[in-house]
Amino acid sequence: MDQGGEDRVAASLAAARRTLRAGVEKSRALGHALARAGPRLEEIQVALPALEAAVRPIRAPHGELSAAGPHIDRAVGPAAAVLKVFDAVHGLERPLLAPGGGDLPGYLAVLAQLEDARRFLADNCGLAAQWLADIVEYLGDRDLADPRFLADLGVTLEGLRAPSGDLDGGLLAAALDILEAEFRRLLADHSAPLAMLNPGAAAAAPARVPAAAVKKLSLILDRLVANGRQDRCVATYIDARGSVVSASLGALGLDYLRDPAQDAQALGPALEMWGRHLEFVVRRLLESERQLCAKVFGQHKDVSSACFAEVASQAGVLDFLRFGRAVADAKKDPIKLQRLLEVFDSLNKLRLDFNRLFGGKACAEIQSQTRDLVKLLIDGAVEIFEELIVQVELQRHMPPPSDAGVPRLVTFVVEYCNRLLGDQYRPVLGQVLTIHRSWRKEVFNDRMLVDAVLNIVKALEANFDVWSKAYDNAIMAYLFMMNTHWHFFRHLKATKLGEILGDVWLREHEQYKEYYLSMFIRESWGALAPLLNREGLILFSKGRATARDLVKQRLKTFNSSFDEMYCRQSSWVIPDKDLREKTCNLVVQTIVPTYRSYLQNYGPLVDQEGNGGRYVRFTVDGMEKMLGALYMPRPRRSASIQIRHSSDKITSAMTGLHRSASAVK
C-alpha cells in the first residue's frame, strides 16, 4: 500500500475514533439527563391529578359552563363593589391622619365618608361573601372546580360573612382619638376663671368661650357621641369646666362657709358676703356654665343636664346651702330673726334662677336641700317673731336701770321694730308670714304685720309704769320716765314705726317728757332754793351777829343738802345730749341765781370772821360748772334683751354681749 493509502486509512481511523468518542460522550450525557429527569417525571406524575382537575371545567360540558356564567357575574358584582369601598377607605387615611389639620368641617366631612364606608361594609360585606359562598357551593355541586380549591375559598368566605368591627384597620379609632385631643385642647384654651366684680363696679357680660370654639366643641361632641364615646367626652368636659369653676371660687375666699359662727350677731359680716357670693355663683358663674353646656351638648339634653349637675356640684352650691342651714341652727334670739330673713331674701331673689339651673332630675339633691332650708328659715323666723311680744312682757318684772337711764330693752326694741318695718325687712317678713299662714290654710296681710309690731311697742310701753314704781326714790322715777318717754319720741319721730303710731301718740310721749322733767326739777333741785331764804335776816348793828348765825346755819344746811343731792344724782344719767343740756340748764336756773344773790347779800357776813370757806364751799362759777357736768352717760354694755325659753334658761338676744344683772339695764 502506497504512502497515500496509509494516510487515508489513518485519517479514517482518527475520524472514527472521534466519532466513537463523541457518541460515548453523548451517551454519557443522555444517561445523566435521564438520571435527572426521573424525579421530575415523578413530580409531573404527582401534579397530573391537580392539572386534570384544573382543566376539568374546560372538559366540562359547554352547557353547564354557560349556565354557571350568569350566577358568577351576579356574585362577583357586589364583591367588586365591596372591594372598591375598601380601596376608598385606604384613600381616606392621609386626610384623617395627617398632622396639623385646621379645617375642622373638612375633617368631619372626611370622617363622615369613613363612617358611611364602614356602614356600607358592615351592611354588604357579609352579603357579598354569602353570595360568593353560594357560587362556590354551586360549582362544587356540579364538579366545575377543584374541590380543594373550593374548600379553601369557602373557609375564607366564612370569615367574611360576619365581619369584625375593625373593617377599616383601626382608622376610625385613630381619627376619633384625634378629635378627642382637639376637644380637650379647645376646652383648655378657654379655661380662664370668671372674676367677681367689686360692689359698685360697672356690670359686664360674663366671660364665655367664643362662639367659634363652642361650635367646634359641639360638632366634635356630636361625632364622638355618635361613635360611642359619650362617657369619655362627658368626663373630659366635667374635668375641664369643673376646674374653671373651682378656680373662679378659689379667688372668692370661701373659708367662712366651712366654719360658720354659732351666734346670729357674729354671722352678720359673713352673711353679707354669703349673699353676694351666692348671687355671683348662681347668676354669673353657673348661668354662664349652663348656657355653655346647653350649646356644646346641643340636642343631647339629658347628657347636658347630668353634665351641668356635676359642674354645679364643684361650684359648692351645697356648701352655700349648708351655711344657710348653720344660720337656721344658730342660737335663737331676736337678731337671728333678721339673719333668717336675710338668708330667705337672698334665696328668694334667686328662686327663678334656682328653678332654671337646678330644675332637672340630675340636681335632685340641691332641690331637696333648698326646700328643707327654706322651710327651716320660715318656721324659725315666724317662731321668733311670734315670741317677741311674750319676751317683752317677761321683762316687765325685771329691775329697772340703776342709773335711771333708758332701759336697754327699750333701746333695742325701738331700733329693732323700726328695722323690721323698714324697707329691708318688712316685705320679706310679710312674705314669710304669708307663706307660713298659707301652709295652715290661713290668710295674712300687711296690716296684720303692722298690728303685730304695734302690739310689741305697746307691750313695751306698758312696762314703763311697772319699772318706775320699782324705784324707792320718786325723783329717780321721774328722771327714768323723762328719759324713757323722750327716747320713744326722739327715736320714733320721722321713722316708719313713728308714722304708723301717728303724731298724736308721739306728742303724748313728748308731753310726758315735759311733765316728768318739771316734776324732777321741782321735787329735787327746786327743794334746795328755799333753804336760802331771807327770813329773820335784819342787817343792822344790833342784829348782825344773829344774822351771821342764821346765814351760817342756812348755808350749812344748803351745802349738806346740795352735797347729798349732787352725790346721789352724779350717778344718774340722761343719755340724750339735748335733753341733758336742757335739764342741766334748768337745774342751774333753779339753783344758781338764788345762790348768787344770797352770797352777794350775805356772803360778807361770813367772810368777816375769816373762816368763810367753811360755809361758802362753792363759788357761783364752780357750782354752775358742777351742775352743767351732771348726768353724763358712762360707757355701757351694748343693748341687750334676754329671751326666756321653755327650758326657763335666759339667753342673750344680742350675741357676743355681756349679760348685766338686769335684763332691762
Automatic annotation (TrEMBL):
Pfam families in the record: Exo70_C, Exo70_N
GO BP: exocytosis; protein transport
Family to which the UniProt record says this protein belongs: Belongs to the EXO70 family.
Taxonomic source organism: Urochloa decumbens
Start and end residues of each Exocyst complex subunit Exo70 C-terminal domain: 273-627
Keywords: Exocytosis, Protein transport, Transport
Keyword rRNA-binding attributed: no
Protein name as annotated: Exocyst subunit Exo70 family protein
Taxonomic lineage: Eukaryota, Viridiplantae, Streptophyta, Embryophyta, Tracheophyta
Keyword Transport applies: yes
Signal peptide range in chain numbering: none
Biological role: Component of the exocyst complex.
